[in-house]
Amino acid sequence: MSDANGRSGNPADLFAPVHGVSGHAGVLLPDGPQIDPLKIILDEPDDFDGWRDAARELVMAGVPPMGVVWQVRGEDGELFGNEGAAPPPSGKPMFSVPKPFIDMAKAAICHSDPQRFALLYALLWKLKANRRALEDRADPLVDRLEKLAKEVRRDAHKMHAFVRFREVEEEGGTRFVAFFEPDHHIVRREAGFFVRRFATMRWSILSPELSIHWDPATERLSEGPGATRAEAPDGDPLEETWRTYYASIFNPARLKVKAMLKEMPKKYWHNMPETALVAPLIAGARARELEMIERARNNLAPSAGVQPGGNVEAAWAALREEAMSCTRCDLFRCGTQTVFGEGPLNPSIFFVGEQPGDQEDLAGRPFVGPAGQLFDAALEKAGIDRATTYVTNAVKHFKFVLRGKKRIHSKPDTAEIDACRWWQEQERALIRPPLTVALGATAARSLTGKTLTITKAREAPLTLADGSECWVTVHPSFLLRIPEEDRRREERARFVEDLVRIRDRAAALA
């Protein structure tokens, strides 16, 4: 490959200093004399702002990639290079870079690869000459930086999934402490995720490189020195409940050990209480799977010795308790409380609505307002006993806008639906309903992950990811909003017809 000055060779050559006749490292500037490489010292391993400011000055001064040595303060670096400011700018106007480069740079700069700063500067140098250089996916430099950014994002995903807080009593109150050992410099980058998700908790995340601490009382995020796993707490009383929940949703028929280890490498197991159950659950998976097959074939009750799902009630109660402090999206700031699902845990039908309304938010129960009353009346006409069904919502907090003293319903957006989808999925994973009903477009989106047209979707049942059936119909609130008397009567009759078909199908599946 060649750089912007026409030099050809291996990508690594872009970062190798050139030694002049004096024996010192030197670089020949495009329009000037040979200079010693400039050593840029960054404050932190993930110092994007420092890198960006220095790179901007360097590239505008015409300093090529091989004229810069990048180093993090306190780390061993290159022997050559003089620390100092960049040469005076060339006087040429500043240039802009594509937004995808900024996104890539913010991720890649958190990688542990010591050449990340130099690689990014080399690509910035290319973008100065060719703004579309990032589009060349065959370029080894672009490919390498894309891989660095991808590995950082994957490490961040692991952190989101595998951090486990443990309760610790301190003089100032309860603190939740977790230990996580990332592959890259992501702790500071991902702090915002945990602040948003656990905004009301007083927590600390310890890692070998640094620790971060959140205090909701002052809304202050602070940093501290790194820590070892030995400095983190071993466990707390809630872990037994979590292990019970994990064991109850374990499905031996879907066990794929290689895929599990790929997504949850063993290096993270020390920090997660449920991983102590993995080995015995795997060991007994085949026997449980065979029993499930035999029981389905013979329609026999489970033996007294093995009762998969026997802890469903405890697991559901633990899930509901955890949902009460949900901060997955900003709606928790609006509603009075989380409105969780209710009903028997072996329902004939599993209904999913949109979100709680004003009265549901105050009562803490789903479908108790005007739409709930219409829903109950329609169920009665269709011959469905609500007491035999489970009713929940796709979004668990009330979203509204204030008009005077009234709280007016506001439709949840896609991000809010997706953030709350986890709760609905956990409810269904525990209850395992044979038939689920989506009441409206929001519920359909939550269950399928797609935007569906109700008119078309209600014609025939859908198959969900777990193999169960999903029927789609309108939300009762839609019927309340129809102004014309005749059309309102017609649509209510059609809603009841949908429920009758759902009742008959549920009976056939029972």
UniProtKB/TrEMBL annotation:
Keyword field? 4Fe-4S, DNA damage, DNA repair, Hydrolase, Iron, Iron-sulfur, Metal-binding
Q: Which Pfam families match?
A: DUF4130, UDG
Q: Which Gene3D superfamilies does its entry note?
A: Uracil-DNA glycosylase-like domain
Ranges for domain Uracil-DNA glycosylase-like come to: 340-500
Q: Which domain of life is it from?
A: Bacteria
Please give the SMART domains that the UniProt record associates with this protein: UDG (SM00986), UreE_C (SM00987)
Q: Which SUPFAM superfamilies match?
A: Uracil-DNA glycosylase-like
Family of the protein in this entry: Belongs to the uracil-DNA glycosylase (UDG) superfamily. Type 4 (UDGa) family.
State what protein this is by name. Answer: Type-4 uracil-DNA glycosylase
What's the source species for this entry?
Answer: Sphingomonas humi
